[in-house]
Design a protein that fits this description.
Pfam families: DUF6223. The protein is an all-alpha fold. The protein is built from four helices and no strands. The radius of gyration is 23 Å and the shape is elongated.
């Protein structure tokens, strides 16, 4: 056994210990929980924004369209902010269980929610 192999073994072991471990399939890591929450909130924003654009006049009071549009904007903004935080703090790449995939979905769905909310808000201002 040479002196070089004695010093090389702990260095290699330390390098392996620094690697982030992938989460199990059913493990709910904080990143997964955050990205799932962000995606669901943004999805609620998309549904509410779609309802604001649909203008179901028989079922809603006059100010409901503006309220729905603002709710869609707020939900989309929250989904994008939380998804951005999860994406920025994810240790590994896609498939490691850190929530990066869900965070990217939350960013896209949150953007769609904000667009629908903005369109609904513009329509509610135009129609009174």
């Amino acid at each position: 056994m040479s002196v070089a192999s004695v010093f090389a073994a702990p260095a290699a072991a330390a390098h392996v210990a620094v690697q982030p471990a992938a989460a199990g399939f059913y493990t709910m890591s904080p990143g997964r929980l955050g990205s799932t929450t962000a995606a669901l909130v943004a999805l609620v924003g998309v549904v509410v924004g779609g309802l604001a654009l649909a203008r179901s006049t028989g079922l809603s009071r006059p100010g409901a369209l503006r309220g729905r549009a603002l709710l869609a904007l707020a939900a989309g903004l929250f989904g994008m902010l939380l998804g951005g935080v999860v994406a920025a703090t994810a240790d590994g790449g896609l498939g490691t269980g850190n929530g990066l995939g869900g965070a990217l979905v939350a960013l896209v769905v949150g953007l769609a929610s904000m667009v629908l909310g903005g369109l609904g808000l513009a329509r509610s201002r135009r129609t009174g």
